[in-house]
Amino acid sequence: MINITNKSGLILEGGGMRGVFTSGVLDCFMDNGIRFPYTIGVSAGACNGLSYISNQRGRAKFSNIDLLEKYNYIGIKHLLKKGNIMDFDLLFHTFPNEIIPYDYEKLASCEEHYEMVTTSCKTGKACYYEEKKDAKRVIDIVKASSSLPFVCPITYVDGEPMLDGGIADSIPLMRARELGYDNNVVVLTRNKGYRKKEKDMKFVSLFYKEYPAMQEAIRNRNRIYNEQISMIEAMEERGEIVVIRPEKPVEVDRMERDSKKLIALYEEGYELGLKELRN
Could you tell me the pTM of the whole model? Predict the structure, then answer.
């Protein structure tokens, strides 16, 4: 059951195009006037969270489904042409400035706190940013939070090199708790019981040679993610948090382009968000 207090936090996992599940949950929350005093998003969760915090219902769904159908902004062609598997110019400049303009005035005036997570290339540690006034810095942060290792270029925030926030802190529940928010709702983009497979990460040494801490963070990512999931499942079992997640194994890939699959996952997110509100 979701019971909003001044200690309530909303934690949004990433997951690439699986984040369309989160956009369904958030549209449901907006339709029902559900606001949290604190929200934190990672990668795709950071993108979805921005539209939620500015109360632009349907905007995240549009970017994940309609915009993808029209512009096909994910794929190897972008990687070969611009060194980035996604068209960041479209996603972080044309889209928020021209197609569905982002409501920076609403962001600046909202009372709720909103943080986005990046990973520092220099330290390999998570960085947590809240920015409401500087539109350029907002974009720098969300772009960095979404910059997947190996297939996206390093992005800079305040001149510091950054990559995807999910490398260091995929599910920043403990960040919320450290700030005093102990009544939390966690939105995941994988089904219950999912764990990342341990992988041979020797190839990482071929990348980011000037950033050994980033190499180490990438090597440890799957282990830390699985530890976070185990902690979340234990806290959920004890009734300490509410978790909203897909009910069955997700067929949507991180770089999914099948709009039917994306729509189905969005609708599942909306329905499960509604189900939680009715409990």
Answer: 0.96
